[in-house]
Amino acid sequence: MSAMFRSFAARNYRIWFAGAIVSNVGTWMQRIAQDWLVLTQLTDDDATAVGITMALQFGPAVLLLPLTGTVADRMDRRRLLLITQLSMAALGLGLGVVTLSGHVTLPMLYAFAGALGVAAAFDAPARQAFVGELVPDRLLSNAVALNSAAFNGARLVGPAIAGVLVAGIGEGWVFILNAASFLAVCVSLVVLRPSEFVPFTRLSGRGGGSRAALRYVRARPDLLLVFGMIAILGTLGFNFPIFTATMSRLEFGAGAEVFGVLGSVVAIGSVTGALLAARRDRPRLRTLALASAAFGASLGLGAVAPNVWVYGVTLVFVGFSALSMMTSANAYVQTTTAPSMRGRVMALYLAIFMGGTPIGGPLLGWVADAFGPRWALGIGAAAGFAAAGLALAWYARHYQVRLRIDRARRWPWRLQATRPADREQATQEIAIIEVQNQR
């Protein structure tokens, strides 16, 4: 089997992956259809209302953080996922019915978006940590990368499919299709073999909860770096629904068809980035820094694109760099975190990743309304460069890396550790795997 897909050798993982990717795509289809419904039918092209919708979708991940990670580490994750997936299916069906019947209103859609956010807040950390129970340790890095690629790829592929379907059959039927997509993951959960699960020490009733996860992360400078970069990009960079919807409708005067095509173009880059990430033996911090800088550059080029065709080309690189960064960050956190802490640490990670949207979504929506979509993209580009700069500052502090100028060489500008002992370390990534006291 190809090294890129070596985790598929595990039967449980193959089944789970197939069901989860269908469900993830359906979830993002619903989210983008919600945003388009708000922008074009429930308001008069109000990007701020789209930002509020996004905030309601992702805000519960922050508000419920003390609870969601602890539940993921304490409860049977398979059973928890069945509950959350069925809950989201019911919400999708309900929103589809009220939309098709013509009774949907903006406050009603806000209520559905918030309820979906609550269910997703419990679902996400359990789903991320569950992959560690499906494969042996030697396959964990690849499995986490593929799982992350599927999750983040759905974040970019789902809007592409939704854009096409919204133009063809309308938002209501997209919500119905999303409800049906959850059946795939529910079936996969039912047919898994628990006897083949990888055992781990489950959090007891007297466990440390989310405070233990905070102590764990504070003791890991490398995780603090990843969380900081994700906080910047999750808040101001990864707001693709606002970028794509406002650029296609407000800047280029296009409809849902072009919106769907632009989403598909992003997916080309995202799939490529996801597959390359899965080939790596282990995630590296330097990949996060390079991908963040590339994301800033490509989004900056998109902000000055003269027409929709040039903008579409830049989106290929936006998707590639964004997926490379998201997948590497997710895989790094999971593979270097103790199994008994994984659910709580991932809840914290996802709260930071998605929780920035309630701030960044309305802010960028307001910027797009007040100054134009290009300025919103410019802020996203600045976020990419800021995250890369944070990584360089971290390396400078922890590895004593400095910029050295040697004009006798062909390439005089280079980064080098100032102390010889650090030189070899400066080319490697920290892989601190520290099992701390869980109390």
| Poorly predicted ranges | 417-439
Q: How large, in whole angstroms, is the Cα Rg?
A: 21 Å
Please give the count of helices.
Answer: 18
Proportion of strand residues? under 5%
Specify the biggest β-sheet: 2 strands, antiparallel
Output the structural class.
mainly alpha
Tell me briefly what this model is:
By secondary structure, the protein is mostly helical. The chain has helices at 11-42, 47-58, 60-63, 65-74, 77-100, 106-130, 140-168, 171-191, 209-218, 221-236, 240-251, 256-279, 285-303, 308-335, 342-355, 357-371, 373-398, 420-425, and strands spanning 401-405, 413-417.
What does this structure look like?
With 439 residues, the protein is an all-alpha fold. The protein contains 18 helices and 2 strands.
Sum up the structure in keywords:
single chain, 439 residues, mainly alpha, two-stranded antiparallel sheet, globular, disordered C terminus
